[in-house]
Write a structure and sequence with these properties.
It comes from Knipowitschia caucasica. This is UDP-galactose translocator. Its main location: Golgi. Keywords: Membrane, Sugar transport, Transmembrane, Transmembrane helix, Transport. It contains 14 helices and four strands. The chain has one domain. The chain is 71% helix and 3% strand. α8 packs antiparallel against α13. The longest helix has 49 residues. It is globular. A two-stranded antiparallel ribbon has the order 1-2. It is mainly alpha-helical.
Amino acid sequence: MAEGNFTKVGEEKEGSRSQSEANRKLKYISLAVLVVQNASLILSIRFVRTIPGDRFYATSAVVMAEVLKVLTCLLIILLQKRMNVKQTALFLFDSIVVQYKDTLKLAVPSLIYTLQNNLQYIAISNLPAATFQVTYQLKILTTALFSVLMLRKSLSRVQWVSLLLLFTGVAVVQVQQEGKKESSVSDSSSQNYVVGLVAVVISCLSSGFAGVYFEKILKGSSASVWLRNVQLGVFGTALGLLGMWWNDGTGIANNGFFFGYTSMVWCVIFNQAFGGLLVAMVVKYADNILKGFATSFSIIVSTVASIYLFGFHVDLMFTAGAGMVIGAVYMYSLPKAPSILAGIGTGAVMESDDNRNVGMSKNGGSLTTEENGEMDSFLPNVSGKQKGS
């Protein structure tokens, strides 16, 4: 009997070790996916917007990304409904049309995200990829400020210091980059540094406000992440089509919707459409520190790649500024110190609300959640054990 107990304990320890090893591998995979997605999107947009030849319409690319995103989320909802088309259609009709007041709440952030996606094309078309990647981290600052103002969130001293360091690092990079252009881009005369800088600053402001607004909506709703993305995408597609008609209507009428599209342009669109959804699936196995590390590492990857691809020149001042931003991103992602509850005798420790594994990640207008309950309904259970319904 005792021998059987020892065998059972040994099997449990072995299973725990193998599970821990599997989770560790998934974390490294998550890190790789986050780095590749963050860096490749910026570099690929920069590449397709600066190479000679027919230039595609950025507004049409934004619309195409929204359409693909909606179709993907609809497919996921259909899978969740066990491929029952009628049940899925009734669910969508009730959630989007019948409960139209709830749907209309997403009109404002959808407008902001559509504007933001277009601004990113403008910014990357006029700024070096590395400079954009560093400056775009100001979205952390704007998100934090809107969280304090709109959600009454509290930030730790380390987070306030990291925000100050972030702002200083971006300022240093901008001072260093003033008046500089990439030497290898043949159409550099058409680039406007000021336009690019204004576009990225407005994009950061819109990202911060929309992200916090979304969080406020999520906390007061039980709707699934995928349904919210469908609601977003419906408005995003409509608003994107309106912006496309307003800005490029004549050109698209003459040249066609897919004018200038190449295999690389399609890669950019797919990256924009599925990047946020892909991160939503892998981020379950990562934590805030890993995400911060991935963002920081992607800045390094973008900078190194820009040196070889676009002739970008890195000097001591840019390195110092980028180093401050990378350090700030990592510092801000560190968890808050746990708050000790009253009752010393119990020795109980509870995490603060900000440190629980519940949050949002906005990527290209996609809404993701890290709450395990949301993702478990779609993602496979890594441990192989079935959860109770």
